[in-house]
Specification:
There is one protein chain. The chain is α/β, with parallel strands linked by helices. Helices cover about 50% and strands about 20% of the residues. It has 13 helices and nine strands. An eight-stranded mixed barrel has the order 1-2-4-5-6-7-8-9, surrounded by five helices. Helix 2 (about 20-35) crosses helix 3 and helix 4 runs parallel beside helix 6 (about 130-140). The protein starts with a helix and ends in a 16-residue tail after the last helix. The structure holds ligand C2E and magnesium ion (3 copies). One magnesium ion (MG) binds near residues 172, 197 and 199. This is Sensor domain-containing phosphodiesterase.
């Protein structure tokens, strides 16, 4: 058996697992082969219209089923990928897998107009010919550019502005949508919003999670929604965990959101069950004024 074969070394391995440095070493050692060995997988979190529950799109979120460490969350290995030259390969796998999946769902659920959102790491975005790769993947799976939304963080925007601007312009010509992820926590300036071809602001979940309890967060949300409106951008809230947050978002006119309250990220099979209905059953009554603040 595996246990007999591993003997003591497995025991030592397990004992050291909690050690951060040790975990990181394991992650570093295994990341490259994880891509080839099919140990990575995507989960998808629905983005919904808070008024109707209609599923507007899905965000692809990578997970790694590590044979020893178990299911790893991306924050633990994305950073390793970035610092070990694997971000490009990992990102390419995610983009390809997410687009293949959307191609399939587009075929299976023709009546839904779904957009697939994919997180793009800074390294990927500034890599040579990123737009060429995106174009090729879209063509391969029969997708329109407008069916893909690439999520970049504010810090990418400030990184290599020239490169970023030129890549985003090429992606814009493909019709691909661009969202600024985790908006409100980074360092981009309003000038960037004006000069870059961005379509959507995704409000960081730190501002959404405590909406019910934090007046400061409500002010920030209100400002971001107003900012988006002024620039003609769409706005999406992430991290919706309470009905209170929903009612505030609806009050200020933010109707698109993701959050555990509506749905956690799920594997493809579970998502298919939701797509068969096309909308989520919302845990609040949107027609009733009682649910409003
Ligand atoms: P993100 O792009 O901002 O994704 C949203 C994260 O918030 C996801 O965590 C999601 O599971 C979580 N989330 C969604 N709704 C709620 C909620 O109501 N409450 C709480 N507490 N959390 C919620 P996840 O999957 O662990 O991903 C974390 C981050 O890792 C992502 O943040 C993104 O920056 C990065 N990431 C994930 N997948 C990829 C990928 O394929 N490529 C790259 N470059 N980064 C990725
Ligand atoms: Mg994201
Ligand atoms: Mg555009
Ligand atoms: Mg976020």
């Amino acid at each position: 058996s595996a246990k007999a074969q591993g003997g003591n070394s497995v025991g030592v391995f397990t004992e050291d697992m909690n050690d951060r440095g040790e975990r990181r070493t394991i992650i570093e050692m295994n990341l490259r082969t994880s891509i080839d060995d099919d140990h990575l997988m995507l989960e998808y979190q629905p983005e919904v219209d808070l008024r109707t529950g209609r599923i507007l799109g899905l965000e692809a979120l990578v997970r790694w089923n590590h044979p020893v460490l178990g299911k790893l969350q991306p924050l633990e290995f994305i950073e390793v990928a970035e610092s070990t030259n694997l971000a490009g390969e990992l990102g390419a796998w995610v983009l390809d897998t997410a687009c293949a999946q959307l191609g399939q769902w587009k075929h299976d659920f023709r009546e839904l107009d779904l957009v697939m959102s994919v997180n793009v790491s800074p390294v990927q975005l500034v890599s040579l010919d990123f737009d060429v790769y995106v174009k090729q993947v879209l063509e391969q799976y029969g997708l329109l550019g407008s069916e893909l939304c690439l999520e970049i963080t504010e810090n990418v925007v400030v990184g290599d502005l020239r490169r970023t601007r030129s890549t985003l312009a090429k992606l814009e010509r493909l019709g691909v949508r661009i969202a600024i992820d985790d908006f409100g926590t980074g360092y981009s300036s309003l000038g960037h919003l004006k000069s870059l071809p961005v379509d959507t602001l995704k409000i960081d979940k730190v501002f959404v999670q405590n909406l019910d309890r934090s007046e400061g967060d409500r002010v920030i949300i209100d400002s971001i929604v107003g900012l988006a409106a002024s620039f003609g951008l769409d706005v999406v809230a992430e991290g919706v965990e309470s009905v209170g947050a929903v009612s505030y978002l609806l009050d200020v006119g933010c109707v698109r959101a993701q959050g555990f309250l509506m749905s956690k990220p799920k594997g493809a099979e579970d998502i298919e069950r939701l797509l068969e209905v096309g909308a989520l059953t919302l845990p609040w009554n949107v027609d009733s004024n009682d649910s409003r603040r």
